[in-house]
Amino acid sequence: MVSSLTSSPSPLSVSVHLSPWSSKPATSSNGNASCDRCKPEMTRLVVTPPTSSSLRSLHQGLDRQCIHVGSSAQERRLIIPTHVLCSSSSTSSSPQARVSSRQDDSSSSPFMLLNHQTSADVSDVTQPQASVAVAEADNDPEVLIECHDVYKAFGEKQILKGASFKIRRGEAVGIIGPSGTGKSTILRIVAGLLNPDKGDVYICGKKRHGLISDEELSGLRIGLVFQSAALFDSLTVRENVGFMLYEHSSLSNERIAELVTESLAAVGLKGVEERLPSELSGGMKKRVALARAIISNDKPGQTEQELVMYDEPTAGLDPIASTVVEDLIRSVHINGRDAMGKPGTIASYLVVTHQHSTIRRAVDRILFLHGGKVVWEGTTADFDNSTNPIVRQFVDGSLRGPIQY
Ligand SMILES: Nc1ncnc2c1ncn2[C@@H]1O[C@H](COP(=O)(O)OP(=O)(O)OP(=O)(O)O)[C@@H](O)[C@H]1O
Known about the structure:
Blueprint (H helix, E strand, L loop, with lengths): L11 E7 L25 E4 L4 H11 L2 E4 L7 E4 L15 H8 L8 H4 L4 H7 L5 E4 L8 E12 L2 E12 L3 E5 L6 H9 L6 E6 L2 E4 L10 E6 L11 H5 L1 H6 L4 H14 L15 H13 L10 E7 L7 H13 L16 E5 L3 H7 L2 E6 L2 E7 H6 L3 H8 L9
Parallel strand pairs: 1-4, 8-13, 8-14, 11-12, 12-13
Antiparallel strand pairs: 1-3, 2-4, 5-10, 6-7, 6-9, 9-10, 14-15
The structure holds adenosine-5'-triphosphate.
């Protein structure tokens, strides 16, 4: 059963943040666990989680996120940006209703971590407050995302040093560049999971202040598909793909199950709804993650555009499985057709990749990131013919050139 959110005399703090590595649990002397690196950037939800095994599976599912868990307590504080689950959709929610219909699952499902939270509860504990304001952005309605002179450092390490670029409606853009140059960091900044230290991010012409929130009305849904697929190990494929709808919509469970089946069909998967992620191959997991990113929220007359960002979607796949994923990425785009022959719905996408096949097959325009900036951009054809020494060294894989390891 779900217990009161405020009854515990000794709350335990559990934090989840987006980090490129897993961290070991850390407990402070007062028994509360927290993460100093991420605290200022978290959306906080006060929750009563189910069991420690659910938290473990959450940890495994999120893979590259860090979760700190202290010892047992009746109440815990979970700090998790909900769009970690691939959506920033501003759907309405009816958490209480959802909780009451799913209380029996409380011992095993991370759904219960988030469900019994009202918007008022969330805003009470959110820091910093996310908001958007109309700013002096370029008023081109075709520009969905604009990053202007973005800087980001981690400790002493300056990663982004004035990165600027635009993503227009209908574009299929690849971000490439040497390892550690900040490609994933850019995705997290665009997704609103990280704040830039300096510089501006505009979403459909509106300047973003702070981190994105579920309440934000940006006119653009932004999905992020993590390299690891980030599926919850203890949830079935159906629960993973439908997570945001179970979470943030008032749709019936039957309707969500139908939408999950449709979304899986769009990525060429059938009859896997009740399987656990451990029963899937690496390529299937990536397709499930894609299905989760593109699932429709079934809102009648919904016109909100969607941008999906893929972080190394073909890493670790064999060449044929890579081709399948690359074609799927194309197929769900507005210029493509999905596995069911339906036109794709994704307005634009951004792919971080190191793989030549992905650049060739899934991308039309390339941004080359080096030294914290976009140092080159152009079409894939321009890329092949470029005489830019940085691009040439990267294409040739040469040890000699301006890129030093
Ligand atoms: N939360 C964080 N705290 C500290 N350092 C971080 C954090 N996130 C990223 N970094 C560091 O920032 C740098 C850029 O990381 P990022 O993952 O963005 O690079 P990348 O270009 O995507 O690399 P790769 O191609 O190897 O995946 C790395 O040195 C990384 O260690």
